[in-house]
Amino acid sequence: MKDEQDLRFLDARLSLTRRGFLKTTAAAAAAVGAGGLVQTREAQGFAFEPYPRDDELQTVVTSCAHNCGSRHMLVAHKKGDVIVRISTDDGRYQQGGFFGKDTEEEPQVRACLRGRSYRQRLYSAERLLYPMGRVGKRGEGKFKRISWDEALDHVADKMIELKDKYGSTALLDQSYAGASYGVLHKSDQIEGLLGRFLGMFSCRTSSWSVPSYQGTTASSRWTFGTIEDGNEDDTFAHSKLIIMWGWNPAYTFHGGNTFYYMRLAKQRGCKFVLVDPQYTDSAASYDAWWIPIRPNTDAAMMAGMAHYIFANGLQDQDFINRFCHGMDAGTMPDWASGSPNGQENFRDYILGTDDGQPKTPEWAAQICGVSAEDIKKLAHLYASTKPAALKASWAPGRNAYGEQYNRMGAALQAMTGNIGVLGGSAEGVGKAWHAEAVAYPYDQFSNIWFSSIKSDRWAHCVLNYPNVQREEIGLWPRQDEMDGVIPNIKGIFWHGSDWFNQLTNINKEIEAIQKLELVVCMDSTITPSGLYADVLLPVATHFERHDVALPWYKGHYYIHRPKVIEPLGESKSDFQIFTELAYRIGQRTGMGDRFGQAYNPKATRAYWHDPDPVEEAYLREWWENKVMPNHQVDMPWEEFKQHGVYKFKLAQPHVAFRDQIENGAAFQTPSGKIEILSTTLAQISDWTRTMYGYHIPSIPKWIEPWESLNSPKTARHPFHLISPHPRWRTHSIFNNCAWLRETYEQEVTINTADAKRLGIVTGDTAELWNDRGRVVVPVYVTERCMPGVLVLHEGAWIDLDENGVDRSGNPDMLTLDEPSPAGAFAYNTVLCNIAKTDLTHRPGWDQLATSRAHVFRRDL
User: Fold this and answer.
1) Within a domain: residue 376?
2) What torsion do the CA atoms of 6, 11, 12, 15 make, to the nearest 10 degrees?
3) Rounded CA gap, 646 and 548, in Å?
4) CA–CA gap between residue 681 and residue 698 (Å, rounded)
5) Is the pTM of this model over 0.85?
6) pLDDT tens digit string along 191-220?
7) For residue 11, which of 21, 3, 1 has the smallest C-alpha distance?
């Protein structure tokens, strides 16, 4: 009876008849009895029909193309003209390679999540496929499709008009290496295709400052005479101590295999220290000693460390005597004593001999918020551990007077004798192994400019012209009649850059853009900058043109970049676009075809329709005439193309300044030594007639920034905002990739104590504001961020509401474009306020449709 009741219950729950249930269970019992659990039907697994199997795909080696801190291998798997999936280096592609090969001498150059998600960016809805002309107001994003003839005719005519009407400074070159960086297709401020094009046209205002590291560049050139001050990353494996000063290599690489070699160092007993306002994933990975520091006070802490080292006799005096200039009284040059500027040496400044203020750890602690005991402990650890790598990263230099941080870091590296030795570090800029970088015509036209200003001062120049002082915009001096002439900027070319989204003080740029008469945006994606353009020109991605990838400042390899697929839509390479524009300008200015032929001497006008033979010729010539003889490469061009990658085997690890320290070669400075006292700066008498505009001390010094947690401005804006690079974007690139944004969200990080005081919890939406702008963004509460500091990653695409509030959370709505003398961009010199808001954050994608990670995170 009970069995029948149970069966009726199952009938009701499972909608099974009693007969059917018994039949099924009997068959199952028979199967078990016959030999265990047996499936009742044979498995028929197969790939979803439109998705081809691997044996139907063609495999093509290529690489990433962006400024993430490296350029790693991508392997495109395609069927016909469609990339089906992307993988990366597995050891088999290099000469003598095999699957799984991964050695300290020849490591795999594996792509990160960004590179491996590139297929979604390639085929994204924001892909720019056709020339477009603006039909609405600037910033409305209203465009219509136009033909290439219409687009290029309009640009050529307008260029000629602006040059004739306003002169040779009317067009601003804002090219950068965001989307077009190879040895042939190159968007770059100095070596780029746009600079050469505008220079030949004799109408170009250039930008001399690099947003990422201009303060660092200035420091390295004054101190070492070169920006090639970096070791290859394999040298990290030989360090006994690595100090990650503002550096998070888990997110921002600075070489091809940084993490690989640092992991080797950890396995060999290396100690790690992180000096940073936030506890990063890198610190967690290496079990680093975290020293939280107030933003923009790094130079003060370094001065405190230098005082401890000098006061306790821990400096490497022999190294100082042999290689340093201006470190102490014994290394001062003869001319310094009679200098009208009253030169002082670094040691006397640190000990307070001249100004009466010793830069003790106690003095530094009051400024930087790090205890004097921790400053002493780190100084002793660094001075007594050999070899030790103080990696003075770029981020703390992206501050007001950021060059002083890097110069102070170089002084510490020198006074401890850690320069030019294996396992040490001299890094500021960090450029290491020298690559042959240019395959396109690089000649007398390549860097012609008629005015050059600091990149993020263009809006100030446009808004205040002609009432602008040269020092306000960092006007570069010239030796002709153009010296001191304020550029009358009327047009902008954005080439491989999203600078309108990435430069400081975006609201100021929005105001300035309305005064221009021509804005051209050349990109593969419709970016926030593109929304303010007059003409959008679709540029083919690196999958759709022939090139070779360089390592990015570090990494000793080349990666072949064939044309993997034909260009989508009507997109063309940047070289094609500038070549065709040159022909059209030549026709309109009486030069005929001479302008086009001079710009691209290997091509005829047929290059517009058939670029492949021309690009093959340029790249082959570059390989055979530059790479092979200059780097003793014996691999022919055809074999390089077949393998896809050439990895150099260095005889010994590349260490910057090894030759100077071991063999007595001179440094590339005026004194031939490491210049702690800069000869160049000491000889300047009229600062207004320099690119810097304002006084810079001849030795490294602590200078109070215009905004910090020590400022009285904290009464209104009590939080210091920093904007590090995210893991899921390369600046603004990949912002529209949902695969990456499923995992990481644009959010502001705040310390637990601050959040509790403000009544904010993880998942709330907050508004951040100051006198420059307002942004809306979700909140993440954690103890991994020091009190008083907010962290908001850079690069989110701006999304302005009707009141000008950015609902996406771009920190550059809040940054200041005030000139920092050596050119450092003050991205991290920002005070602001924060409060919970009812305004809606607009993430730019459908979170609920693709990911619920943020829902579960809210409960943490």
Assistant:
1) yes
2) 160
3) 11
4) 5
5) yes
6) 889 999 999 999 999 999 988 899 999 999
7) 21
